[in-house]
Amino acid sequence: MQVLVTGGMGYIGSHTVVELLENNYEVIIIDNLVNSKIDVLDKIEKITGKRPDFYPYDLCDKELLKKVFMQHKIEAVIHFAGLKAVGESVQKPLLYYHNNLISTLNLLEVMKEIDCKKLVFSSSATVYGSPKELPIKEDFPLSTTNPYGSTKLFIEYMLKDLYQSDPTWSIAILRYFNPIGAHPSYLLGENPNGIPNNLMPYIVKVASKELDHLNIFGSDYPTKDGTGVRDYIHVVDLAKGHIKALEKVLSTNKVDCYNLGTGIGYSVLEMVELFKKVNQVDVPYQIVERRAGDIAECYADPTYAQKELGFTAEKNLEDMVRDSYQYFLHNQ
Ligand code: NAD
Ligand code: UD1
């Protein structure tokens, strides 16, 4: 079966392509490489022994997108492509709305035209805004605090409206919590350019002495130790969740949302301490002001994904912090 993976050269997409190939799906990737590198293709081949078809196209170009659908018999799409930096989205909202919304509209229009109506979409826990209760369930109210989050929420609305208009579509909306870690071959992982915004890549750069110290954004939250609590999930587990979601869309006709997390929240201080212990490195830090827009705690109720998709994250936090650092050490 042929599956199109948009954004398949990126962090989560590349790990998912590996899982797809290992499960004998044929993979076609479209990725304009705006946030990834061409050598990912060789790495995927090295891990799996298979080379997916690759098109370096921008999804905002509908004609090119159509060409790919004409050249293959695509039965389902996993749609990762998008810009994802929250801070940048505040600076450049039109870029985010244009890229994330136009590319998705083009994709849905071409899929409709070709009569390919099975889709798995990358959403984010950011659509829960500031949750009133924990753990977070799929039916909690939705809201956003930045343009990036708004693009995810608007796309969720588009997908639900599309299904309402035509229930022959089958759509899984996956709300990821905080993906970290890397493939155990250490060929694939996360490579942010410049100074990272997110915790794990920042810790890695401090441990490797590229950055002087970690700034911990606030120690006065109402959490176990005052620092922010998040639900970190290993990227390989997350990738496996996509296979389960794909199986679901191939066997049903509905639109549904699933949390992909572990259900366990860890604080920033717990992350730092475990990273130091597992990797035997120092991670100096300073407590600074809270980061604007941050919430105290965010972790999933994973029971619906367990029940409906048969998905349970298997790797623990030790695996995550080890693999994040090892990927860095193997790719300097
Ligand atoms: P990533 O940036 O590594 O991968 C996204 C890929 O999409 C990149 O390779 C990029 O080149 C490509 N792309 C972007 N715009 C494109 C376009 N117009 N046409 C073709 N290709 C395009 O990001 P990721 O971490 O792998 O995230 C994948 C998806 O999951 C994104 O939609 C992201 O918003 C979502 N998500 C990520 C996280 C996270 O923490 N990493 C959390 C929640 C949701
Ligand atoms: C990020 C995204 C969010 C996305 C989520 C899941 C931002 C602003 N938000 O949020 O849209 O849905 O990932 O992928 O990027 N921290 C520090 N020091 C740092 C970096 C982070 O103390 O240098 C703290 C944060 O305050 C937070 C925790 O570490 O408590 C995790 O931060 P981060 O990795 O940025 O993820 P989220 O805040 O969950």
Describe the secondary-structure layout.
Layout: E1 2-6, H1 11-22, E2 26-30, H2 40-48, E3 53-55, H3 62-71, E4 74-79, H4 86-91, H5 93-114, E5 118-124, H6 147-165, E6 170-176, E7 178-180, H7 199-207, E8 214-217, E9 229-230, E10 232-234, H8 235-251, E11 255-260, E12 266-267, H9 268-279, E13 285-288, E14 297-298, H10 303-309, H11 317-330
Parallel strand pairs: 1-2, 1-4, 2-3, 4-5, 5-6, 6-11, 7-10, 8-13, 9-14
Antiparallel strand pairs: 9-12
Helix pairs in contact: 1-2, 1-8, 3-5, 5-6, 7-9, 9-11
Uridine-diphosphate-N-acetylglucosamine binds near residues 294 and 298.
What would you say this structure looks like, in words?
By secondary structure, the chain is of the alpha/beta class. The chain has a domain at 2-182 and 231-261 and 299-313: Rossmann fold, CATH 3.40.50. Helices cover 41% and strands 18% of the residues. It is built from eleven helices and 14 strands. It has helices spanning 11-22, 40-48, 62-71, 86-91, 93-114, 147-165, 199-207, 235-251, 268-279, 303-309, 317-330, and strands at residues 2-6, 26-30, 53-55, 74-79, 118-124, 170-176, 178-180, 214-217, 229-230, 232-234, 255-260, 266-267, 285-288, 297-298. The strands form four sheets. Strands 3-2-1-4-5-6-11 form a seven-stranded parallel beta sheet, with helices on both faces. It has a three-stranded mixed beta sheet with strand order 12-9-14. Strands 7-10 form a two-stranded parallel sheet. Strand 2, helix 2 (40-48) and strand 3 form a beta-alpha-beta unit. The radius of gyration is 19 Å and the shape is globular. The model has no long low-confidence stretch (mean pLDDT 97). Bound molecules: nicotinamide-adenine-dinucleotide (NAD) and uridine-diphosphate-N-acetylglucosamine (UD1). Residues 86, 124-126, 149, 178, 197-199, 202, 214-217, 228, 230, 268, 291, 294, 298 line the site of uridine-diphosphate-N-acetylglucosamine.
